[in-house]
Amino acid sequence: MNEVDTFARLPARLALHHTVQGLSLYSAIYMKNSTVFVCTKCDAQAPKWAGRCLSCGAWGTVREETPTVSTAKAAPVGPIRSPIKLSEVKGENVKRAPTGIGELDRVLGGGIVPGSLILISGEPGVGKSTLLLQVAAALPDALYISGEESADQIAMRFSRLGLKSPTLSFLAETDLGAILATIGAAKPRMTIVDSLQTTISGEIEAAGGAVSQVRGVTAALMELAKRTGTSVLAVGQVNKDGDVAGPKMLEHLVDVVVSFEGDRSSNYRLLRTTKNRFGATDEVGVFEMTGLGLMEVKNPSAYFLHERAQGVPGSAVTCLMEGTRPILVEIQALATKTAFGYPQRRASGFDLNRLQVILALMTERLGIPTGAHDIHINVAGGYRVKEPAADAAVALAVASALRNRALPNNVAAVGEVGLGGELRPVPNLDKRIAEAKRQGFTEVVSPTTYKSLKSVIEKFL
């Protein structure tokens, strides 16, 4: 009788026991003498390298790492603690430290909470370091730690931005142990770490920027912030998909996640929170990049409309919501006779698939043929539309371009367009209408004033 027959005759429970033991022994031998490949996006592990992660489907995120064999034992039983009744806890307002930058305070919920760890992410060159330097200059007793730039480089940028701070300290260091010791000795109110991916812990056997390194560095900074009460602002580099480089667990470890968005070809920048343990996540800050750094935009609607041409066909204004803030933007459309058998559709700042649906709707429901023209849509200012409230404005802009007639300058449009040509309501409609009228638009096309898009086009075009 061979080994296979012997294994097959074992009882199911005993066979499972031997199988688990065999797998555990194999895993221990394999993990000890080899390496593993870890996805930097979802932290999934694989025995060999692959161009695409089999767990989350991301491309180019699998990195080689040297695993550590776990020798952890069962945790000893500790002393019994006495839980408290939540109803007996008196909730108190957290004392926040204002940064001196109103748009940043707005996003954070009023300022920085002492002992918190805030992660700021964004594309290279979007202005993360510039924003952090302005914050460091505004706060007393701040410590700026950089693993990417030297003291001379930071001083040159500080001077170029016209900033002054006699209490700001700088440290060029990448070793986590030295950073923790320095923060513990200096006891700054605010510590800025630029960036997490360049900080290396000597206790972790992995290259800088690896998943295990980023996770360990973040956990150590979080423990330090809670223990000493210093607030930590850490920069997180992003990958090609725009997500924070490192494990997804990184965003769960920190208290606040702030993303800095904007096209480098445009001057405007958006600051928004995707996680905030101390406040809401529906606020957005608007900045303008200038030669003297980031300037706050107090009136975003006027900023995005200040270069709008009057009486030009193919232009329509809509109101979008960024958190609780309504912002007016201009939708531009251009229609040209197609030179090919298949008309071209291009969209900048607007979803191309949604544009295709609107054009098909205009042809079938509104009697406006679009098949003989190339249609180009652009959201002025480099803004990106992420909600269907701009549907009515896009349809009006396209109809205006096709008929070569300009909409009245005092007309704005807000509303989603259904497949039957009807105007559908959108959230915060009252706020949008109020903002449009505050900016001088006396006629606002909305589902409360018009039931169908066809009646709007017949009236104004």
Mean pLDDT level: 85
Quickly count the domains.
3
Major sheet: 9 strands, mixed
Assembly context of the chains: single chain
Identify the CATH class of the largest domain. Answer: Alpha Beta
CATH H level of the largest domain: which superfamily? P-loop containing nucleotide triphosphate hydrolases
**Total DSSP helices:** 13
CATH fold-level label of the largest domain = Rossmann fold
Structural class: alpha/beta
In which range does the helix fraction lie?
A: 25-40%
Which spans of ≥5 residues are poorly predicted at pLDDT below 50?
1-33
Radius of gyration: 28 Å
Tell me the strand percentage band: 15-25%
Major sheet: order of its strands? Answer: 6-5-7-8-4-9-10-11-12
CATH architecture label of the largest domain: 3-Layer(aba) Sandwich
Distance between the termini: 90 Å
Which term fits the overall shape? elongated
What's the total count of β strands? Answer: 20
Structure description:
- The protein folds into three domains: 34-67; 97-298, P-loop containing nucleotide triphosphate hydrolases (Rossmann fold), CATH 3.40.50.300; 308-460, Ribosomal Protein S5, domain 2, CATH 3.30.230.10.
- It has 13 helices and 20 strands.
- The chain has 461 residues and is of the alpha/beta class.
- The strands form five sheets. It has a nine-stranded mixed sheet.
- The model is unreliable at 1-33 (pLDDT under 50).
- α10 packs across α11 (391-403).
- The radius of gyration is 28 Å and the shape is elongated.
- The termini are far apart.
